[in-house]
Each structure stands twice: as C-alpha cells, then as structure tokens.
Amino acid sequence: MMIYSRNRRLRVSAAIRSLVQETVLSTNDLVMPVFVMEGQNKQEAIASMPGIFRRTLDLTVQECRELYSLGVKGVNLYMKVSENLKDNTGKESWNDSGLMQDTIKAIKDAVPGMVVMPDVALDPYSIYGHDGIITNGKVDNDATNEALTKMAVSHAKAGADIVAPSDMMDGRVAAIRTGLEESGFTDVGILSYSAKYASSFYGPFRSALDSAPVDSQEIPQDKKTYQMDFHNSREAIDEVLKDVAEGADIIMIKPGMPYLDIVAKVRETIDLPIAVYNVSGEYAMLKAAAQNGWLDNDKAVIESLTCIKRAGADMIFTYAAKEAAILLNG
Ligand code: PBG
C-alpha cells in the first residue's frame, strides 16, 4: 500500500514547521495580574504562587515599568485591603483616594502606555469575603450592582483604561456602562468576566488577598449562587450573549486550562475579543511540578499559553506574563 498523504512531511524540519504554524504567542497577548498592598518599599512573597509578590505602590510602579519594557502592555489590578477598611457595603472601593485609585493614577503617570485594568468586585473590601453586599444572609444582586457602578466610575476617574468586573452579578455590565456614560467616560471599556465558574482553582489568589468567604453560619460558604456551575457549558453562551448585549467590549472566560472547551465554543459564537484567565491554581500546579523537577517550567509555560490562544483567546491574564515575555523576547 502506498501512503500518498503523509502528515509528517510538514514536520521534517524546524523551518517547515515554523511555516505551517497556525498559532503564535506574542507579548501582545499577555496581561499581568498585580497584587498591591499599603505601605512603602515592601514586597511579600505569596507562598502558593512562587515568583509572585504583593507589593507596595512604589514597587508596583517599578514593576509596571519593567513589564512594559518587556512588551507586556496590560495589567489587571487587585488590592489587599486592611481589615479596618472592610465592611458590608464595600464603600472603600469607591473612595476616590483609596489604594486602588492611587495605584491607577501612579501607573498611568509613570507608564502612560500601560493599559490599566482594575478589578471591579467587592470581595477584597467585604467583611464577608463575598463579591456582593449581603442582605438577609444572601448576596444581594441589585444592591451590589449599585456599588459596582460607583466603584467602576471611581476607577475611571482615576484614569483606568478598561474596568474588569469579576463579580458575576446579573445585569452589572449594563449598570456599569450606564454609570460610565452618564459620567462622561465614554471611552472607558468594560472587560466582563462573563463565564466565570465557581472553581477550586482560585485558592492561591484568595490567600494572596485574604479574600476568601469568612467562616460563618450566616453567609454562604462558597460563591456558587453567583459564579457558574462547572458541570455546565450552554449556560456560558447565555451569560456571554447577555454581556455582549449589555455593552461589554471584551469577554472573559475563567478559569483557563480546564475550560478551553468553553473558550472554543464562545469563540465560534461571538466576534468580540476574548480574554482568558489562566488562574492562580493553574499557575500553582505548574510551579509545584516544575519545582519538583517533574515538568520543564519554560516549555510548559509557553505551551500552555499558546494552547489557550489556540482555543480562541485574544489575550491571556496570566501570572506567568513576565517570565513568558522574557522567554518570547529570547
Ligand atoms: C474575585 C476574583 C477572584 C479571582 C479574580 N477575581 C477569586 C474569586 O472569585 O474568588 C481569581 C483569580 C485567580 O485565581 O487567579 N472577584
């Protein structure tokens, strides 16, 4: 039997393989999540995320300069808020001179080209560690939307390019869009976490920000009444289409690697840009294996990010953004 069609012909040399490559990862695809804390000239390592730190504002700005010079043009901001600033309303989140607002201003001043994307969600500001205001023991959707809108407008005033609501309340994209338009921030975009699943892969992030739901009979002990059920995929399409209709500019799917079927499905359904969040638990798994010598760190980083792009991501939020940029720059 003659074999006329041989797939291996196009794998004969590195040069041929490079000619037929469909997906190529570049620094243009990378967004770095950044953890910020109060104080000066301090950084704290996050134990479950080797290589990742909480930094004070001054060191965060320095880090942003470095990221930008490596070609990473987007940062996603998270604040670690001290306990005395937390309450059930999350009002510190729309304090125009809060840590987030100061951070946005400082980064835009020092690195004007950096696309600054603050996280919009109440959990770091909530005494309960939930993404919403608690009313009668439940996460109160509509009251939360009002708070998120004030927060997003305050971020826009500080100079945010794109606000990134990660809370999963219903109708919050429309509420935030209306708030931004009414305040004149017509050019500030919304990157909506549309299909965000209730996932065990967020553990290291919650310890980084001390933002896990607190242990109390009075509140839900998980986020399953607002984040999606991982058994479902059709529901993701419904969530995404609603956010598109409400005026989202970019759609986020989260987590990344175990959810690439969702990414591919959404890619076939919409034409807006898609962001994928390669979350803290995915990063922790890779680092743990690499530290044990069980995986080649650099190869696994580039492969996993390229595969997320192949599934349909236009941009990837990843804690490996900096090391990936260094690798990509050769
Ligand atoms: C909360 C938020 C979470 C993450 C980003 N924003 C955690 C959660 O929903 O509990 C997780 C990111 C990660 O794990 O890397 N609004």
TrEMBL record:
Gene Ontology CC terms: cytosol
Native organism taxonomy: Bacteria, Pseudomonadati, Bacteroidota, Flavobacteriia, Flavobacteriales
Keywords from the UniProt entry: Heme biosynthesis, Lyase, Magnesium, Metal-binding, Porphyrin biosynthesis
Catalytic activity: 2 5-aminolevulinate = porphobilinogen + 2 H2O + H(+)
Lineage top rank: taxon: Bacteria
Quaternary organization: Homooctamer.
CDD domains: ALAD_PBGS_aspartate_rich
Origin species: Marnyiella aurantia
Pathway of action: Porphyrin-containing compound metabolism; protoporphyrin-IX biosynthesis; coproporphyrinogen-III from 5-aminolevulinate: step 1/4
GO terms classed as biological process: protoporphyrinogen IX biosynthetic process
Catalytic residues, chain numbering: 196, 254
Record-level Gene Ontology MF annotations: porphobilinogen synthase activity; zinc ion binding
SUPFAM superfamilies: Aldolase
Enzyme class: lyase
Catalytic activity, EC: 4.2.1.24
Signal peptide boundaries: none
Name the UniProt record assigns to this protein: Delta-aminolevulinic acid dehydratase
Family in the record: Belongs to the ALAD family.
InterPro entries per the UniProt record, alphabetical: ALAD, ALAD_AS, Aldolase_TIM
Binding site for Mg(2+): 239
